[in-house]
Amino acid sequence: MRVNAYAKINWSLRITGKRADGFHDLETLFQTISLHDTLTFDDSEHLSLTCDDPSIPVDETNLVVRAAGNAKVAISLHKEIPAGGGLGGGSSDAAATLVALGNPSPEIALSLGSDVPFFLTGGTAYATGRGEILTPLRRLAGIPLLLLMPEERVSTARAFGMLREFSQPLGIERYRAMIEDGIFSHTTELVNDFEEPVFAMLPSLRTLKTQLYEEGAAWAAMSGSGSTIVGAFRNAADRDAAAERFDNVRAVAAETT
Fold first, then answer.
1. Is 193 a catalytic residue?
2. CATH number of the domain to which 65 belongs
3. What is the span of the domain harbouring residue 81?
4. How much is the pLDDT for 156?
5. What's the total number of domains in the chain?
6. Of the residues 37, 115, 193, 209, which is catalytic?
7. What is the pLDDT of residue 158?
8. Containing H/E element for 5?
9. 110 and 88 share a domain?
10. Quick check: is 21 catalytic?
């Protein structure tokens, strides 16, 4: 069996407070995109994982192995989503494993990671709590994207540690209204609270965001805790023309799904 594990971006990501359990509360607008990893499952006498990216661990520290549990299956993972890029690759791989092996439990998904439950369904979703309280919204499908993937990577734990203040949530009705009105008309409200501390540490990421706007992006932002910078375009022709002008960083064309 072969399944795709799709990446995500965050249209908006507000960190709204610190919880007693050590996690943070957040408000985000999740979005799956066409970029994906591929997992292949074969019958086996014992559980094993191989990966074509040598930097990815294949032991029990990998969420795929934890999601597989006691399944007797040999899993092969082909990586396209960069690790540490803010695109949710590991979480998506874990969710795809749960679905493929017939155990798509939101409770198990949350035990693996805060955004794993979102990947069980994907699409466009408003999320609060740790990211697990999900409400599907009208899907923003087919929007052309350009993903800029620098070599620098950002640890999610470090990004949370750099936060110095929290944001007020906008509420689901505001996001619903933005989608109905046209998401590109509300780019000033689509903020990522990780940007300022991460950009202070890695100024080159701010430059990439600025360049996306200069090349015609209707919206640009860092995804998650970074380091991927994503730009959304009004049409694929503008996106493809912009992609040709980024020759010093990995640039990947994608679209919302």
1. no
2. 3.30.230.10
3. 2-136
4. 82
5. 2
6. 115
7. 86
8. strand 2-18
9. yes
10. no
